[in-house]
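User: Here's a protein and a ligand (phosphoenolpyruvate). What would the complex look like?
Assistant: Let me lay out the input and then the predicted complex.
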Amino acid sequence: MGRVSTDTAAMAPASTTIDWPDLPATQQPSWEDPAELAEVLSVLATYPPLVFAGECDALRDRMAQVAAGRAFTLQGGDCAETLADVTGPNIRDRLKTILQMAVVLTYGAGMPIVKVGRMAGQFAKPRSSDVETRDGVTLPSYRGDMVNGFEFTPEARRHDPGRLLRAYHASASTLNLVRGFTGGGLADLRSVHSWNKGFIQGPAQARYEQMAAHIDRAVRFLEASGVADSEEMRRVEFYSAHEALVLDYERPMVRRDHRTGQLYDTSGHFVWVGERTRDLDGAHLDFVSRVRNPIGVKLGPGADRDTVLRIMDKVDPHREPGRLTFVTRMGASTIRDKLPALLTSLGDEAGRVSWVCDPMHGNTFTSPSGHKTRSFEDVVEEVRGFFAAHAEAGTHPGGIHVELTGNDVTECVGGVDPVDLDDLGLRYQTLCDPRLNHQQSLELAFVVAEMLEEAGR
Ligand SMILES: O=C[C@H](O)[C@H](O)COP(=O)(O)O
Ligand SMILES: C=C(OP(=O)(O)O)C(=O)O
Ligand SMILES: [Mn+2]
């Protein structure tokens, strides 16, 4: 996790003293029992913060480097974390995948990679429909393990406030292990590099051999010079992020930093507002505008100059370096048309925020077998369009935000060791959107590293 020099005394619970304005909030659970909810909210407000304000400040500084074009961010993890998947091997493998990608990207970018997991809080989902119908039976849609269960029964699909507490504990366990791994040697550059060799010895050999050989030489140089033995090479800064969606979870997690009196959403380091909940007069943008964390806002193809400027004025009125990140998710076939025009229309204002590419959410389709999927080639094409748009507008392509897992799932099609449409049913495990599997994630890192190298020339 982010290392900070300030002391880490607990932050005073502040949620009970905040008068949240009564604004429209979309995509919220319909809890049945107000008394049960009130009890849960008061318990949540007494729990320890999951992150420390000083860490959020450190991440804001890192994101300021991203905005300035001096760092690149990698944000990745599940579409929807699940309580059942909070296990040691799952957390380790997801973290390993992100660290592996980061080493490759560091080489391509020639600059620091700010590593952020969609982890330890990504337990709630906005949905297109409130209900799901199967064989003539209609039940509430699955909204993430923080709200209800995936099983298609009335009991499981009930919105259960007790799940807010379970999501908190699952997030705490996840963060605890991540902190152990990132501080305790798992992230050692030499180990991460040797895992990547496994990938290159596979089907990716021909395409990425040259870059892998260059990375190998760079690591051997560090080893020979003794730098690889330093503490710095054994530890890694890693931050948590999730969509600030369910306000009954986020609000009680807000704490006042005892050092400064400022409010932080202590459920994660970086929180973002999704494409479906970023209404200018809604509760979500209002919520994030009141906390000091670095904030993300998703932008789909419909986002125009006026909307973007109004979001900036609301969330980042002082244009504070590192405060605001726009995560664009336009779609591979749309980005080259929409993003350059948007960036250009913003003029100098475009340079005051970070721009990150989510190449997943604009590229979803349903396979003939009925699986929600994405094609690896579309994902790559959107990132290419993202780099081209920033080159055209003279702004910085600041990072990528991807749905991925460390496991060998078959959810997205394509890649150098391709998952075919017919394979999707083999290991389709996501409860919401399709994720890149381990191999596809590493391949994406190599392709993006090539783009970064080219952009830096
Ligand atoms: O992750 C993003 C959204 O929650 C997800 O794409 C919505 O999926 P749906 O259209 O199946 O509801
Ligand atoms: C809901 C998500 O995305 P978006 O808000 O961009 O649709 C997500 O990131 O899982
Ligand atoms: Mn998703």
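Summary: Residues 162-184 form the longest helix (23 residues).
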